[in-house]
UniProtKB/TrEMBL annotation:
Region (Disordered): 111-140
Record protein name field: Arrestin-like N-terminal domain-containing protein
Biased composition (Basic residues): 125-140
Lineage: Bacteria, Pseudomonadati, Myxococcota, Myxococcia, Myxococcales
Length: 140
């Protein structure tokens, strides 16, 4: 069973080293919602290309329960400064997802995944030099 919720990001893109912010709204009053002790939000990076896909959970935030339907729950998750930026190539793809999971003790923990983009930090914000490309990314 999937988690029935909406995820709204404050910005469509987040800079590397920035904060992913937004709101989660649980839409239905279910037994999982009533029994959940917390909500886990994970920033996941997936690298797909030749060979085995790589999946990394790069940061996690937890919101304590209890939860009610139709209530906006704000969240903030830091995105690593050296994390790879979103990339859609022919051979290699780097995609970011926010995984929202209700943690239900001794029960099924429903979840939902929503995509977002990570872009290079702007020069005004990052004086440490140009952003580093992912090691598997093709040369620019």
């Amino acid at each position: 069973m999937n988690l029935i919720c909406t995820v709204q990001f404050d910005e469509a893109e987040v800079e590397a080293g920035g904060l992913l912010t937004g709101r989660v709204c649980l839409l239905e009053d279910t037994s999982a919602l009533r029994e959940a002790r917390k909500m886990r939000l994970s920033a996941i990076c997936r690298v797909e290309g030749p060979g085995k896909p790589e999946v990394r959970v790069l940061n996690t935030a937890e919101l304590p329960g209890p939860f009610k339907p139709q209530v906006d729950l704000p969240f903030r998750i830091p995105i690593p400064e050296k994390g790879p930026i979103t990339y859609q190539g022919i051979i290699l793809q780097i995609r970011w997802h926010l995984d929202v999971q209700l943690v239900v003790p001794e029960g099924f923990s429903p979840r939902k995944e929503t995509s977002f983009d990570v872009v290079p930090a702007s020069a005004a914000r990052s004086r440490r030099g140009p952003p580093r490309a992912h090691p598997k990314a093709p040369p620019a």
